[in-house]
Amino acid sequence: MIRTLIFDLGRVLIPFDFTRGYAGLAPYCPHPPEEVRARLKATDLVYRFESGLVEPADFVAEVTRILEMRIEYGRFCEIWSSIFLPETLIPESWLAALHERFRLLLLSNTNVIHFTMVRENYPIIRHFDDCILSYEVKAMKPSPRIYAAALAKAGCAPGECFYTDDIREYVDAAREAGIDAVQFESAEQLKRDLQDRGIDW
User: Fold this and answer.
1) What is the pTM of this model?
2) Is domain 4-15+86-196 given the CATH code 3.40.140.10 in the classification?
3) What is the pLDDT of residues 85-139, one digit of tens each?
4) Do 118 and 124 form a contact (C-beta atoms < 8 A)?
5) 189: number of CA atoms within 13 Å, CB side?
6) 27-41 pLDDT, tens per residue?
7) CA-CA-CA-CA dihedral for 83, 132, 139, 89, to nearest 10
8) Which residue, 68, 74, 82, 84, has most beta carbons within 10 Å?
């Protein structure tokens, strides 16, 4: 029997588009959006930031150096977080109803700048009992360590947990940890997958 439901954040609860961030940073540096993307992709800086190995101020300082930018810290954070779109992919009413019957956890590869903005601007987050965030546990999906951290928060056996993520590799890693997991495609598909497991609201 499922006791804990675990959700990914990006492209499961909240849609995002990285091109919005690249386009937003471009006016503050001598590079077009595609070059902004290429310069960031050529480093492991974002990976280290989301793994909790780089502090926010150091991250912003390094990005501004790589992109030859002139920008204030607060403005950078606004643009860096502009990737998230306003409408959630799963209705908040679903999570509210599910939370009445199940423990809810959020499991995400993210960073402190993004998650601070998400927590402040998306009321849907309040329905989660706990959050397992890569920058806090210093491990990113698909590392077994982040799933172990999630199971420690779940308070039940792996087989009593259900997880959904939009990335197949991360779903497979959850299954390897013993968690019942499905790849997220749409709210309606997720609803069917939950109902197939006797989970309704």
Assistant:
1) 0.96
2) no
3) 999 999 999 999 999 999 999 999 999 999 999 999 999 999 999 999 999 999 9
4) no
5) 10
6) 999 999 999 999 999
7) -30
8) 84
End-to-end C-alpha distance for the chain, whole angstroms: 16
Which residues in the chain are classed under CATH 1.10.150?
A: 18-80
Residues 189/166, Cβ–Cβ less than 8 Å: no
pLDDT, the chain, mean: 97
Give the C-alpha separation, 187 to 181, whole Å: 15
Task: State the fold for domain 18-80.
Answer: DNA polymerase; domain 1 (1.10.150)
Q: Are strands 103-108 and 130-133 parallel, antiparallel or unpaired?
A: parallel
Q: Which residues pair with 180 in a beta bridge?
A: 162
Please name the residue that has the structure tokens 């480093």: 43
Q: Which two tokens stand for residue 64?
A: 């501004």
3-state secondary structure the chain: CCCEEEECCECCCECECHHHHHHHHHHHCCCCHHHHHHHHHCCCHHHHHHCCCCCHHHHHHHHHHHHCCCCCHHHHHHHHCCCECCCCCCCHHHHHHHHCCCEEEEEECCCHHHHHHHHHHCHHHHHCCEEEEHHHHCCCCCCHHHHHHHHHHHCCCHHHEEEEECCHHHHHHHHHCCCEEEECCCHHHHHHHHHHCCCCC
pLDDT (average), residues 169-178? 98
